[in-house]
């Protein structure tokens, strides 16, 4: 191979003829250093030699980035590695990996809570449901958007803006600076305006920091094992108030009377179904006609814990549902259509209802985007107010079902299975498997007793949809 002394002019003028796939120009000064060119690409410095009896060629770089002296120096370095018995390719790979690790380390040291939070959500999303993932996005939302509901108390007539999620206040901070003192100050500030939601976000923050502690690139940035797990933060957020709203046995008659007088029969049936099944508000709202098995008298509930559960379709509830109009796929349907904004509001409200949590302000607007019932809570509040039962919530009806079964001494496991609670004892968890027929024995007895106490009688033998109800005075 012809060799020449590399000069700037010779290097710049070198190119590959069109009738060849590649061409080389070799340096006489440094053995193994060459310039390679192809018809389509720019020339680049290469080093060619032998390592352990096999041909070896490495690309050094473009003449635009490498001067001739620098390229010659690199070629000599590679030759020294060969002389020392080291494979230049392995040396290059090790240097590249070390450089990547160094850059990653530098980035991780300056990583903000927001950047790590995004990585956390991306990794955990496959293990989460859509609702749980959406809740985490909402906790870190920036806010400042025009609110769909609410009034601007400072400037009447001007639309209110959405409030940033509690976690958002921490996102721009480097994870390295998220100390227990910072979390305690954050908890104290959030507790002033929204303690309930702040407690939920604090629990999620602790789980997030546990995740960080399990990853080497983030664990060394934590001030403590978990900066959010402090006594002061817990005390600042306070304890959740115990909710005890429920119907007493002697209140059943007035409640049924008020609910049955609601003008909307779908709302009336929904509220009665809630009380008589003990299901979560969102579980009943999303009931479809396909979920009702009239042959085997079963009802499939979309359970937030187990995914699906089947409970008995009791006689009175079956008559109530059979009398409802079949407008669409939903048992508790509505005729009003909604805008996209209202649809999003409804989804948030149903998510909180199904979870049994308090929906933030602005998420309880009447909505029926997909055709099912909208805002049964408002009609329920009005009905309760007429009979002096203020404060009874939709979830209070679920609580009422559980409480009222105490009068009948129904096995706790039966009530838990109907309501969709996880088993609380070893025997319940591993040994008790109650079929639908056995649940029906207890559930129908519960329904009959509640109706008896309410003074409601009906003809169970009447054809479905031909319900004849009499309320005793």
Summarize the structure.
This protein has 19 helices and twelve strands. By secondary structure, the chain is α+β, with helices and mostly antiparallel strands.
The gross shape turns out to be elongated
Overall average pLDDT = 84
Largest sheet: 5 strands, mixed
Regions with little confidence, pLDDT below 50 for 5+ residues: 359-368, 467-473
Rg: 35 Å
**Helical/strand content category:** alpha+beta
Helix proportion of residues, in percent?
40-55%
Give the strand tally.
12
Order the strands across the largest sheet as they lie in space.
1-2-3-4-5
Report the portion of residues in β strands: 5-15%
Please give the alpha-carbon distance between the first and last residues: 114 Å
Total number of helical segments?
A: 19
Structural notes for this entry:
There is one protein chain. The chain has about 475 residues and is an alpha+beta fold. Helix content is about 45%, strand content about 10%. The chain contains 19 helices and 12 strands. A 5-stranded mixed β-sheet has the order 1-2-3-4-5, covered by helices on one side. A hairpin with a 6-residue loop joins β3 (about 35) and β4. The chain is elongated and about 110 Å long. The N and C termini lie far apart (about 115 Å). Mean pLDDT is about 85; it is low at about 360-370 and about 465-473.
């Amino acid at each position: 191979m012809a060799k020449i002394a590399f000069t700037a002019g010779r290097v710049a003028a070198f190119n590959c003829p069109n009738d060849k796939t590649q061409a080389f120009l070799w340096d006489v000064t440094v053995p193994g250093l060459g310039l390679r060119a192809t018809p389509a690409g720019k020339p680049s410095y290469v080093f060619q030699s032998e390592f352990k009896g096999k041909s070896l060629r490495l690309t050094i770089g473009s003449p635009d980035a490498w001067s001739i002296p620098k390229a010659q120096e690199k070629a000599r370095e590679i030759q020294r590695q060969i002389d020392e018995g080291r494979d230049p390719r392995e040396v290059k790979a090790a240097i590249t990996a070390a450089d990547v690790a160094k850059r990653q380390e530098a980035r991780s040291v300056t990583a903000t809570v927001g950047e790590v939070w995004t990585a956390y959500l991306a990794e955990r999303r496959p293990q989460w449901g859509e609702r749980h993932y959406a809740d985490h996005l909402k906790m870190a939302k920036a806010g400042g958007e025009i609110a769909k509901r609410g009034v601007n108390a400072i400037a009447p007539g001007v639309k209110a803006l959405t409030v940033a999620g509690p976690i958002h206040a921490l996102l721009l901070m480097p994870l390295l600076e998220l100390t227990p003192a910072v979390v305690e100050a954050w908890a104290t500030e959030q507790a002033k305006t929204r303690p309930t939601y702040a407690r939920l976000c604090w629990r999620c923050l602790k789980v997030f920091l546990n995740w960080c502690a399990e990853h080497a690139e983030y664990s060394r940035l934590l001030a403590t094992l978990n900066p959010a797990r402090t006594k002061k933060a817990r005390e600042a957020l306070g304890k959740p108030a115990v909710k005890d709203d429920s119907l007493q046995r002697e209140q059943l008659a007035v409640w049924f009377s008020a609910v049955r007088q609601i003008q909307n029969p779908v709302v009336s049936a929904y509220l009665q179904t809630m009380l008589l099944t003990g299901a979560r508000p969102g579980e009943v709202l999303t009931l479809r006609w396909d979920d009702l098995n009239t042959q085997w008298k079963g009802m499939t509930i979309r359970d937030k814990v187990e995914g699906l559960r089947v409970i008995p379709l009791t006689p009175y509830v079956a008559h109530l549902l059979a009398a409802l109009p079949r407008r669409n796929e939903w048992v508790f349907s509505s005729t009003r259509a909604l805008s996209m904004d209202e649809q999003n509001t409804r989804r948030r409200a149903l998510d909180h209802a199904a979870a049994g949590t308090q929906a933030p302000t602005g998420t309880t607007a009447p909505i029926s985007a997909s055709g099912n019932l909208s805002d049964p809570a408002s009609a329920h509040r009005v009905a309760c107010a007429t009979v002096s039962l203020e404060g009874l919530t939709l979830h209070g009806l679920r609580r009422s079902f559980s409480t009222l079964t105490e009068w009948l001494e129904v096995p706790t496991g039966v009530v838990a299975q109907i309501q969709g609670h996880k088993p609380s004892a070893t025997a319940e968890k591993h040994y008790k498997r109650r079929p639908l027929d056995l649940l029906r024995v207890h559930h129908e007895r519960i329904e009959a007793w509640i109706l008896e106490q309410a003074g409601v009688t009906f003809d169970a033998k009447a054809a479905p949809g031909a319900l004849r109800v009499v309320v005793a005075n």
